[in-house]
Amino acid sequence: MSNLTKEDVFQSIISVENKCARINNNVNIYGTFAEIGAGQETVRHFFRAPNPKGTIAKTLSAYDKDFSDAIYGLEPQHRYVTEARLRSMLEYEAGLIEKRISRKKHPDKLFFCFANTVATIDWAKKYKGHGWLGIKFQKEPKQEYSEIILHVQLHENSAAHQQLSLGIMGANLIYAAFYQSENPKELIKTLYDHLSSDKIEIDSINFKGPVFENVDNRLMSLQLVKDGITEAVMFSPEGNNILPANRLYKKNILTLRGSFRPVTYLNIDMFVNARKKFFEQPAVDPDNTVIIFEMTINNLKGEGEINEKDFLDRADLLCASGQTVMISSFQEYYKVVEYFSQLTKAELGLVMGVDNLQDIFNEKYYRNLSGGILEAFGKMFFKNLKVYLYPVLNEETGEITNSKNLKVHPRLKELYKFFMDNGKVIDLEDYRIENLKIHPRKVYEMILDGDETWESMVPSLSANMIKEKGMFKKEEAK
Fold first, then answer.
1. Which SUPFAM superfamilies does the protein's record reference (predicted)?
2. Which secondary structure element, helix H or strand E, spans residue 337, and what is its range?
3. End-to-end Cα spacing for the chain
């Protein structure tokens, strides 16, 4: 296996035609296709494969909005490329096939309904295109439906190419639902058979139903970032996957990055002080603001591979405290800012400690950029961004370091002074001195060692959860 080339691996992947043929030749798989906005690209593959009548009960494209509303109901906000529209399509079509195809006549049928609602790139190439795809399906006759729903960003520069990619992914999804659903992580990879994330990017995916009863969708989100399919995923305080583009569109965003292993009073002090300062900005409306606790893949890896239980422990603690969580592949802060600036033109805030700001002014992190640190800072600070800086305490000397006495390399002093003079760095001054003495890494080590001193450094809600659920055990940390 080690001698296989990429071409060998590609050739070993089942062709789209063979996938569709296998579905078509299964006498029990039967369903409907409803595709809006990009033609009927998925069902086209099944028509071209042998024996389409064995699978296709109905296909339609309610392209006209009035027709779509007449079939699937009115959309209150008159938006049609939404998860809500996709779900109404799937529910309607699943109910219809159950109503029109007799179970008495076809007791062994495995029904499915596939749907997508998509907007491809516009003629001016101003809007790149995106869409929702989903399938409701049965693995056993009369079984409650399981479902897979995903959102995609379309990156190709022509509508025709986007349609082709969409059709391939749709066919892959239907095949995976029936033949590859035992391992959802591997299923995600098979959605890219004969595709790449450069063409079509999955940035949200959710599994539901009896086939996936043991699936935690947060782990599926993590897998998207881990596999390099998308750069960032989010989930709500309720623990549900949410689409970043929907949650952050035109919002003010305040972000605190950390490992949160676990959340300590230091993290809470940073968050509370930064939020207060952020809300004091004239352009910031608290009701139009999203606060994000961000973890990077590097935060999660620690010294080795990502431990899923450890990840879920951290996520549970953050969600229980009412936070929106983001997992990203952004190692550098300027990439976080770039990502957010694609979704909003409103105010942005980054909360960080002095040591993080010192790292930002370290030129070694920008050697991959032709413009070096100046290019990175241009990307980071030309937007409506402010850094909210939490001080650090030297416990031996008692000295507190903030933006005013922070030392940077002599070559970068003028650059640092420029951002200070322009109000881009704001000191957090209402901190609690005792919280400056908390070191999250040491708190984690205390938990591992059974040193109960850690409980005084962690909010009571988190401390109780850690003890009750046995979080951060030694064997999990290996």
1. Nucleotidylyl transferase
2. helix 333-341
3. 29
